[in-house]
C-alpha cells in the first residue's frame, strides 16, 4: 500500500475512488492530450467503463509537433477508443487577443465541439485531467469546464500531481514521467496576438533545440518585437552559450529578430508573472494550462 502525500490515505484507495466516480458517469468522453493527467484519466475510464469510454484529442495549430502521434500511441496502449477532432479556437477574437484568459476560449471551443458530437460519440459525461494541485494555478480553462458541466475526476477523487504520476507508473503508462507540455500558444507573451504563424515558429524553434541539445524540458517564449526568450534547465545554459552562434542563426532564420537566453532557466508558468494578482484569482479566470 502506498501513501504518496502523507495524508495516511493510500494510492490504492484514491485509485478505487477514481474508478468509482467514472463508473457513475456512464458513457465517458475524456479530453485527452496524451499527457500524464489525461492518460491516467483515460486508463481509469477504460478500466471503469470499458467500451463506453472514448478519448477525444483536439488538433489545431497550437498542438506541438509529435504530440498527436504520441497521443495515438498511448490511447492504443490503453485500449480506449480514440477520436481526433479539429478545433478552431484561432477564429475566436478573445483567443487571438491573448489576454490572461486565453485558455478559457480554447477549452470552450473544445468542450463545445464535444458537446455537439455527444450523439456521435455516444457519451453522457465529459471529463478532463485537472488534478488537486491545479486549484492553486492560473487556469481559466476550468471556468469553461464549470460552465459546461465537465467533470474533473482526478480532482474529485483527491489526487495530487504526485499521485497521478505514481498511478501512471503503477499502470505502466510510459508517460508517467513526461514533462508538462502545454499548448504552443502558451509560449506567446500576453498581449501579443496568437497566430498560426507565430505558434509554428515557436514549434520549429523548440524542435530544433530539443533535437540539437537532447533537451526534455524547454520553452521558447515569443515576446513582443519578435524576441525569443529561451528557457532551458540551468545545467544546459553553458552548452547553449557555447553554441550560441548556431542557436541565433537558426532562430533568426525562423523569423525571430532577437534571441535571448533566460538566466533563471526553465520554469513552468513564467508568463503568468506579468499578470496582476487580481487576474490570477478572478472568478472568470479560475484555474488554463501552464504558460
Question: Would you write up a description of this structure?
Answer:
With 291 residues, the chain is α/β, with parallel strands linked by helices. It has two domains: 11-170, Rossmann fold; 184-267, GMP Synthetase, Chain A, domain 3 (2-Layer Sandwich), CATH 3.30.300. Helix content is 42%, strand content 12%. The strands form two sheets. It has a four-stranded parallel sheet with strand order 3-2-1-4, sandwiched between helices. Helix 3 (67-78) links the parallel strand 2 and strand 3. Helix 2 (36-49) packs across helix 9 (161-170). It is globular. It starts with 10 loop residues before the first helix and ends in a 10-residue tail after the last helix. 43% of the residues are buried. Mean pLDDT is 91; it is low at 275-291.
Topology:
Elements: H1 11-23, E1 28-31, H2 36-49, E2 53-59, H3 67-78, E3 81-86, H4 93-97, H5 102-116, H6 118-121, E4 125-127, H7 141-147, H8 153-156, H9 161-170, H10 196-213, E5 219-223, E6 227-231, H11 237-242, H12 244-253, E7 258-261, H13 277-281
Parallel strand pairs: 1-2, 1-4, 2-3, 6-7
Antiparallel strand pairs: 5-6
What average pLDDT do the residues reach?
91
Structure annotation, total helices:
13
Strand order of the largest sheet: 3-2-1-4
Residue share in β-strands:
5-15%
- In whole angstroms, the N-to-C terminal distance is 35 Å
In percent, how helical is the residue content? 40-55%
Q: Based on CA inertia axes, which overall geometry fits?
A: globular
CATH level 1 class label of the largest domain: Alpha Beta
Number of strands: 7
Rg over CA atoms, rounded to whole Å, is 19 Å
**Contiguous uncertain segments of 5+ residues:** 275-291
Any idea what the CATH superfamily of the largest domain is called? HUPs
- The secondary-structure class comes to alpha/beta
Q: What is the domain total for the residues?
A: 2
> Architecture of the largest domain, according to CATH?
3-Layer(aba) Sandwich
CATH fold-level topology of the largest domain = Rossmann fold
Secondary-structure element order, N to C: HEHEHEHHHEHHHHEEHHEH
Q: Biggest β-sheet, characterized? A: 4 strands, parallel
Amino acid at each position: 500500500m502506498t501513501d504518496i502525500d502523507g495524508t495516511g490515505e493510500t494510492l490504492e484507495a484514491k485509485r478505487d475512488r477514481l474508478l468509482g466516480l467514472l463508473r457513475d458517469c456512464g458513457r465517458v468522453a475524456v479530453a485527452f492530450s496524451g499527457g500524464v493527467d489525461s492518460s491516467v484519466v483515460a486508463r481509469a475510464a477504460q478500466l471503469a467503463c470499458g467500451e463506453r469510454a472514448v478519448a477525444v484529442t483536439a488538433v489545431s495549430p497550437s498542438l506541438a509537433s509529435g504530440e498527436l502521434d504520441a497521443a495515438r500511441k498511448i490511447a492504443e496502449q490503453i485500449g480506449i477508443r480514440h477520436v481526433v477532432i479539429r478545433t478552431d479556437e484561432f477564429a475566436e477574437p478573445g483567443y487571438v487577443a491573448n489576454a490572461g484568459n486565453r485558455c478559457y476560449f480554447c477549452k470552450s471551443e473544445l468542450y463545445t465541439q464535444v458537446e455537439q458530437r455527444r450523439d456521435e460519440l455516444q457519451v453522457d459525461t465529459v471529463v478532463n485531467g485537472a488534478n488537486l494541485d491545479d486549484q492553486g494555478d492560473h487556469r481559466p480553462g476550468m471556468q469553461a469546464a464549470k460552465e459546461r458541466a465537465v467533470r474533473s475526476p482526478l480532482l474529485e477523487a483527491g489526487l495530487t500531481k504526485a499521485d497521478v504520476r505514481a498511478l501512471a507508473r503503477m499502470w505502466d503508462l510510459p508517460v508517467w514521467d513526461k514533462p508538462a507540455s502545454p499548448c504552443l500558444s502558451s509560449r506567446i507573451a500576453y498581449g501579443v496576438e496568437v497566430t498560426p504563424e507565430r505558434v509554428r515558429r515557436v514549434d520549429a524553434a523548440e524542435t530544433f533545440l530539443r533535437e540539437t541539445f537532447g533537451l526534455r524540458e524547454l520553452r521558447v517564449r515569443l515576446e513582443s518585437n519578435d524576441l525569443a526568450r529561451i528557457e532551458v534547465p540551468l545545467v544546459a545554459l553553458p552548452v547553449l552559450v557555447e553554441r550560441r552562434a548556431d542557436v541565433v542563426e537558426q532562430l533568426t532564420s525562423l523569423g525571430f529578430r532577437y534571441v535571448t537566453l533566460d538566466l533563471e532557466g526553465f520554469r513552468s508558468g513564467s508568463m503568468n508573472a506579468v499578470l496582476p494578482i487580481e487576474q490570477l484569482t478572478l472568478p472568470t479566470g479560475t484555474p488554463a494550462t501552464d504558460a
